[in-house]
Amino acid sequence: MEQMVEQWRRERPDVDPSSMAVFARLTRAHLAASRAIEATLGRHGLNRGEFDLLASLRRAAEPYRLSPGDLARAMVLSPAATTNRMQRLEERGLVVRRPDPADGRFGVVELTDAGKALVDAAVTDHVATLDRLLADLPVRDRPGFTALLGAVERNAAAAPER
User: How many CA atoms lie within 13 A of 128 on its CB side?
Assistant: First the structure.
């Protein structure tokens, strides 16, 4: 990375390559973290999408149920993609679809006991993996780092495509 920056500075002193270094590091960190996260969740028989659905229900608090629309919004997914994940997890006995107790015209997705046990085990290992990935970033610095990444995320989301 440092070599790339120095080469650009030598060849194009009129251009500051520091932003290239930041995004190269973000990309490399994302790829390495994704591999570690997939491996951790894979040990529990889950992929990231399945974990996300189970975790969204688990975070909903007892009785661990959400409407399909609320579940899709929690995962920032289309209803079709949510249904696909839901069906796979339902076949495995990890979630169940039921009529909404408050209004039988609608349905809810509910975490089963097996789903709760699985997501609880997976989230423990998932957080341990994330903590290992952040081991060299002091806990006291994480809120500031998260805020800085949030600024990059907002700018990227607002940037017009060219």
Answer: 9
Judge whether 155 lies within some domain.
no
Peptide bond into 99 cis (omega under 30): no
Looking at the domain assignment, is residue 69 inside a domain? Answer: yes
The Cα 122–Cα 111 span in angstroms is 14
Please check whether residue 150 lies inside any domain of the structure.
no
Does residue 134 contact residue 49 with C-beta atoms inside 8 Å?
A: no
Q: Is 112 left (phi over 0), alpha (psi -120 to 50) or beta?
A: beta
Q: Which is it for strands 103-111 and 95-100: parallel, antiparallel or unpaired?
A: antiparallel
**Domain count within the chain:** 1
CATH number for 57: 1.10.10.10
Percent of the chain with pLDDT over 90: 78
Tens digit of each residue's pLDDT (9 = 90 or more) over 39-93? 999 999 999 999 999 999 999 999 999 998 899 999 988 888 888 899 999 999 9
